[in-house]
Design brief:
The chain is of the alpha/beta class. The protein has helices at about 35-50, 70-80, 95-100, 115-130, 145-160, 185-190, 190-200, 205-215; strands at about 5-10, 55-60, 85-90, 105-110, 135-140, 165, 225, 230-235, 240, 265, 280. The chain has eight helices and eleven strands. Helix 6 crosses helix 7 (about 190-200). The chain starts with a strand and ends with a strand.
Length: about 280
C-alpha cells in the first residue's frame, strides 16, 4: 500500500458550453454554495492527514471554471495536499488563469469547436513555460471530422506539442459504442490494425460486451481492497465511492458520509475497471 490518496472530484455538473455531443448529465445541474465545498475539502484533508496520507486532487465537471470560487477551493487543496489536476475546457476568461495557475500541477485541457482560440493559445503558452504536466485534447465530431482534425493539427504545429484527437462515444459511455464514424475516419483516429480488430464490435449488445469484460477481468472477491483509502471518487451529486465498481457505499458529502481507515472485502464478481485493478489488494 502507498501513502497517497487520489480524490477525483466532479464538483458539479454545470456548464454553459453547449457542446452538441455532450450528454445532459455533464451540464444539466447547478452549483452549491462555496462553504459546502470548503467544508467537505477540510474534512477530507483532516481525515487523510490523520492517517499520514497525502491527497492528490483531481477536479472535473461540468466545467469547474463556471464555479466562481473554484480558485479558492483549489488553493486550499494544494496547500494541504500533494498534487492538483484540473480537467477543463479553459473557461471563457483570461482572469481565471491568474488565480489558478500557481496552484495547479497537472492540466488536461479540452479544446472544443466553439472556443476562443486566443484564450486557448494563452493557456498553452502559460503552461508550456511551467513544469506542469500538460495534456491537450480535441474532440473529433464525425459530422465535422475534417474541421476538428485540422484544428487539432494547427495547434500541434503552432505550439510544437502533441494534441490528442479524441473519439466520441454515445452518451459519453464506452459500453454504448462510438458515434457513427465512417471506416476511413476510424482508421485515421485509431489506425487500420485497430479497425480490422474491432470491426463488428459496434453491433455488439451491451450484454455481449459486459460478458466479454467479465471473462477477461481478474477476480478479488473476498480479498481486502484499499478502495476508499487509496482512491476516492465524488460525483457531481455528492455521492462517494472508493472505486469504479462502488464496492462500498460511503454516503453523500452534502448529507452524511463515512471515510474508511481500514480496507474492506471485495464484494464484486470481477474487477472490471483497469483503475480499480491498480488499487492495492491483500491477496
Amino acid at each position: 500500500m502507498n501513502n497517497k490518496t487520489e480524490i477525483s472530484w466532479t464538483i458539479h455538473n454545470y456548464c454553459t458550453g453547449g457542446c452538441s455531443y455532450c450528454p445532459s448529465k455533464f451540464w444539466g445541474g447547478g452549483i452549491r454554495h462555496f462553504d459546502e465545498y470548503i467544508s467537505v475539502a477540510k474534512k477530507m484533508i483532516e481525515h487523510f492527514n490523520s492517517m499520514g496520507r497525502i491527497i492528490n486532487w483531481k477536479f472535473d465537471g461540468g466545467e469547474p471554471l463556471e464555479f466562481f470560487e473554484f480558485p479558492m477551493l483549489l488553493k486550499l487543496c494544494k496547500e494541504n495536499g500533494g498534487t492538483t489536476t484540473l480537467s477543463t475546457n479553459g473557461g471563457k476568461l483570461w482572469l481565471d488563469w491568474f488565480a489558478i495557475e500557481p496552484n495547479l500541477d497537472n492540466l488536461i485541457l479540452t479544446y472544443h469547436y466553439w472556443q476562443n482560440p486566443n484564450l486557448i493559445n494563452y493557456i498553452i503558452q502559460t503552461f508550456k513555460s511551467k513544469s506542469t504536466t500538460f495534456k491537450m485534447m480535441v474532440p473529433i465530431r464525425p459530422d465535422y471530422f475534417d474541421e476538428d482534425w485540422n484544428r487539432a493539427e494547427l495547434v500541434q504545429e503552432m505550439h510544437n506539442m502533441h494534441v490528442e484527437k479524441t473519439a466520441l462515444y454515445k452518451s459519453a459511455e464506452y459500453m454504448l459504442g462510438l458515434l457513427p464514424y465512417t471506416e476511413n475516419q476510424l482508421e485515421k483516429l485509431f489506425g487500420k490494425e485497430w479497425v480490422d480488430k474491432n470491426r463488428g464490435k459496434q453491433e455488439e449488445t451491451f450484454k455481449q460486451k459486459w460478458v466479454e469484460i467479465l471473462e477477461t477481468s481478474p477476480s478479488f472477491t473476498g480479498k481486502k481492497c484499499f478502495a476508499g483509502i487509496e482512491k476516492l471518487k465524488i460525483s457531481a451529486e455528492g455521492y462517494i465511492s472508493g472505486s469504479d465498481c462502488n464496492n462500498t457505499n460511503h454516503g453523500n458529502i452534502f448529507k452524511n458520509f463515512d471515510l474508511l481507515k481500514e480496507p474492506e472485502p471485495c464484494k464484486m464478481q470481477a474487477c472490471t475497471s483497469i483503475y480499480d485493478q491498480k488499487i492495492t489488494k491483500i491477496i
